[in-house]
Amino acid sequence: MTQATESPEHRIKRLSMRSMRRGIKEMDIILSRYAGARLSGMSAAELDRYEALLDENDQDLYQWVSGQKPAPGPFAPLVQDIVDVACSPNRTV
């Protein structure tokens, strides 16, 4: 199945799995939690942006999420949303 013919449900499942299997354990936890909280409610364009974010280097992602470096402009709102979910008082992880 190509991504062009991929069902929304399958795409969300694939992105959830990519979120859980990163190179840094901290990013596994942060992104898998974010995926569970947000992916099912995202539009196709938002999923495109999230998928592009997942293509970025894990070291860079960690620095953006931890505030060590600012996220590049196109990713800044998404990274902020990831931080908001990670810092939510209702987190279960």
TrEMBL record:
Pfam families: Sdh5
UniProt entry keywords in alphabetical sequence: Chaperone
Gene3D superfamilies: Flavinator of succinate dehydrogenase
GO biological process: tricarboxylic acid cycle
Similarity field: Belongs to the SdhE FAD assembly factor family.
Name this polypeptide is given: FAD assembly factor SdhE
Organism from which the protein derives: Salipiger pallidus
